Amino acid sequence: MHMADALISPAVGGTMWAASAGLLAWCARKIRQTLDDRLVPLMGVLGAFIFAAQMINFTIPATGSSGHLGGGLILAVLLGPYASFVVIASVLTVQALFFADGGLLALGCNIFNLGFFPAFVALPLIYRPIVRDARGGVRLWLGSMLAAIVGLQLGAFGVVIETTLSGISELPFDKFVMLMQPIHLAIGIVEGLATAAVVAFVARTRPEALVMPSAPVDFSVNLRPVQTGLLIAAVIVGGALSWFASSHPDGLEWSMGKVSGREELESREAGIHEDMARVQEKTAFLPDYGFKTGEPEETQAWPAVNAGTTISGLVGGAMVVALAGLAGYLLRLRRKTA
Amino acid sequence: MDEFGAMDSPAHRLDARAKAVATIAFIVAVMSFPPYELSGLAPFVIYPVVLLALSGIPPAFILRKVLIAAPFAICIGLFNPLFDRHPVVLPGGLVVAGGWISFASILFRFALTVSAALVWVASSGMHRLCAGLERIGAPRAFVVQLLFLHRYLFVVADEGLRMRRAMDLRSAGARGPSLRVYGSITGHLLLRALDRAHRVYAAMRARGFDGRVRALRETESRIGDAAFVVCWIAFFAIARKWNLAEALGAWITGGAR
Question: What are phi and psi of B88, to 5 degrees?
Fold first, then answer.
């Protein structure tokens, strides 16, 4: 699931770097505000534990194959969202730098895919509501399984979206989704089993070890500086880097253009395909990252400083920020009602 | 990897930040090429090769690391020849699917970006890397976390290896343990790691730890570092704008383009 640089375009990589760096700065601030320095060695050793735990395999029930812990969820369970995000980011950084597991440009993508979803989606929205204070039994196993599956499904979907947007792999979006999601369903089940087994053991033998000196799930801080920073970063990245997005049609369109003489194949299938295409045409107000002109696009020299591309980048960035804001708002609502 | 970080060479004496900036510019330039590019990428080989030569790190070490990391890029890249089947005529009359060209391009980029990043890290060492990170404004909690992770990585990993060996010896060649046994073994590993964290914390407090890790060898920027960055970025820009390999080929073959 670690993405390599060779499949990422600079625009996608840069955007995800900005997103992950912003999250990291925010988490670091939360840790500094709420915590004693006991957490410093604890976080370091737990990061090392993730590496060590990946060396121990177990037999997956009823299949005969073996699996091991991935680590995102158990860190989130042990340390809470902020500290676990920092630990996962550090684990991925060390993997990228020292083991060439995942690229540098892709590091932002990897931190987001493997760090954000377990810590800020799977833990607060799935694991905690289901498991609550359960020290074993059905709640713990169900919560761990569901949280691990959802976290990995979202992460795998992130990989698909980032790879497709980068346009370097020829793998079509739908085929890539069909490849990634089932594989990560299996990985998610294994991850859930492993996480629950370890948490259940620790809860049985030394329950106090599960109460870490970590920050509570608390989203009521002043987010304005972070939001402003993220907004500025998104505007800069979306606006500036999209000039550098290649002005050539993407690979598949290019090859189809060569073969058939037109950019997109005409679909002759009636029924649902046509309807979907019409819906897509209506809803995609930024097809191919540029405004519809009705005229053939002219090829431009690199970097193509094109108003259409820039505006697409800006609008896309704004939408991402808006979605992230909505997610934060929902989390806050949940907390108030809880 | 750590042995190489402690070496001394012209490449090691460069500021870790200067190498970071040049390496990131390198990766961005390489990845901004369109999918079918091959010849235009060729001049970029110079950067990792020069840095490697300056650092005195054995090339076989870097090559081995690149090969170990290759499977993922190969797996995803292999779909290109499957989905992109328009014919391309190579010099010599050989016809292949266009996807093979972009697949070759992906592998080439992979080798370039991974080797550049590895040489950068190997010629910097974790401590200088982290000191550089902190000075360009990375959150301190993250930098300290990286240093601690790196320090305890091998200690805890050794612990895990010992436990696995003990388990293998007692299970007499059977397949992996059941989930219940796994939970107990990994749980014990976790508890040992936690105990270690408490001992480390106590020892650190006894020595006056205040949440900061201070780097011994503070690096400072010099003109040489700035020149290093400027020259490489200029080279990347030129190589990105004009296809140097093709120009050289045209010059050698007598100007026939």
Answer: -125, 130
Could you tell me if B45 and B91 lie in one domain?
Answer: yes
Task: State yes or no: pLDDT of B70 exceeds 60.
Answer: yes
**Is residue A207 domain-shared with residue A228, that is, in the same domain?**
no
Measure CA B96 to chain center: 32
pLDDT tens digits, one per residue of A142-197 = 999 999 999 999 999 999 999 888 887 777 888 888 888 888 898 888 889 889 98
Residue A111 pLDDT > 90, yes or no?
yes
Buried-state track A114-152, b at ≥16 Cβ within 10 A, e below 16: bbbbbbbbbbbbbbbebbeebeeeeebbbbbbbbbbbbb
Q: What is the pLDDT of residue A231?
A: 59
Which of B142, B167, B189 has the CB atom closest to A28's CB atom? B142
Residues A202 and A229 in one domain: no
- Specify the pLDDT at position A325: 56
Stretch 131-190 of chain B: residues touching chain A, C-beta under 8 Å:
139-142, 144-153, 155-157, 159-161, 163-164, 167, 175-190
Q: How many domains does chain B have?
A: 2
CB contact under 8 A, B182 and A58: yes
pLDDT the model gives residue A154: 92
Give the Cβ contact number of residue B64 at 10 Å.
11
- Tell me if A257 sits within 8 A of A288, measured CB to CB: no
For residue B182, what are the domain limits?
A: 139-206
Q: Is the pLDDT of residue A302 over 50?
A: no
Q: What is the DSSP string of B221-246?
A: --HHHHHHHHHHHHHHHHHHHS-HHH
Residue among A235, A214, A188 at smallest CA distance from A60: A188
Nearest-CA distance from A338 to chain B in Å? 30
Dist CA B102 CA A255 (whole Å): 11
Residue A219 has pLDDT above 50, yes or no: no
- Residue A29 has a pLDDT of 87
Per-residue confidence (pLDDT) for residue B1, from 0 to 100? 66
Measured over the CA atoms of residue A170, residue A173, residue A179 and residue A181, the dihedral's sign is positive
User: How many whole angstroms from its chain centre is CA A24?
Assistant: 14
| Residue A317 banded pLDDT, cuts 50, 70, 90 | low
Report the SS3 class of residue B87: strand
For the segment A100-114, the average pLDDT, to the nearest whole number, is: 88
The domain in which residue A83 lies consists of 5-218
The total number of residues written for chain A in this structure: 338
Statement to judge: residues A248 and A122 lie in one domain: no
